[in-house]
Amino acid sequence: MALTQIFHAFRLAVGQLSDPRFRRVFFLGIGLALLMLIGASAGFVWLVDWLVGDDNSLPLIGTVTWLDDLFSWGAAVLLLVLSVFLMMPVASAITSFFLDDVADAVEAEHYPQLPPASHVSFADGLRDTISFLGVLIAANLLALVLYLFFAPLAPLIFWGLNGFLLGREYFTLAAIRRVGPTEAKRLRRRHMPTIWAAGVLMAVPLSVPLLNLIVPILGAATFTHLFHQLVSPRRATNVQYPPR
User: Fold this and answer.
1) Residue 26 falls within a domain, yes or no?
2) Cα–Cα distances in Å, from 45 out to 34, 198, 229?
3) What is the pLDDT of residues 199-242, one digit of tens each?
4) Within a domain: 204
5) 180 in a domain, yes or no?
6) CA distances from 186 to 5, 129, 182, 183, 221 (A)
7) Which of 207, 204, 208, 131 is nearest to 163 (CA)?
8) Taking residues 152-169, what's their average pLDDT?
9) Could you tell me which residues come within 8 angstroms of residue 72 by beta carbon, excluding any fewer than 6 positions away?
10) Is 26 exposed, middle or buried (0-12, 13-18, 19+ CB in 10 A)?
């Protein structure tokens, strides 16, 4: 049942790509994801270049001057490799930036009977984004130990961990607009298996270079639909929003 709900939500998200309002946010999200990945990769290349320097000595070879060029010419390949790991925090940041726009477009098309949602302020959104990014990075650093000890299972651990964290964050952001933070947490706990499964199904393509660029916005739309599937629209309509 959970997988049926998730795939139905995803099909609805993909089906809205013909909507100009949704398509604008979709391409903005792709552009921002690419810029963030390029910026992160450029910073990494600059750091390695600074550490390596122009002239280096290798055992049995002697002085070499081509390492600097190697790292420079390998920037495109490096971008693809780093995107496997960097797209998890990038996806989180993009969702925080565009969730309201994505959810508004989804709800205007599929749930027009709902009243306007309660939007999170920029300051609150920025604080939550920074907090979650810290949790995401810390959790993945700690998971390095598991990757080393259980190397054959490393991809499954990576997807399971990040799927749990991303699903939790995406669902909370989608739910809090309609039912407030307290009810969003209660719903998240109640439906965590479904949310986790949806997060894993999002984390897998996020680890595929190039394909991962389109996932954040589609993921935000999918979790918006998933929220409305798990909570009846009538209940969401009658809720009293808490003051922010």
Assistant:
1) no
2) 16, 34, 44
3) 999 999 988 888 888 999 999 999 999 999 998 644 444 444 34
4) yes
5) yes
6) 19, 20, 6, 5, 21
7) 204
8) 92
9) 45, 49
10) buried
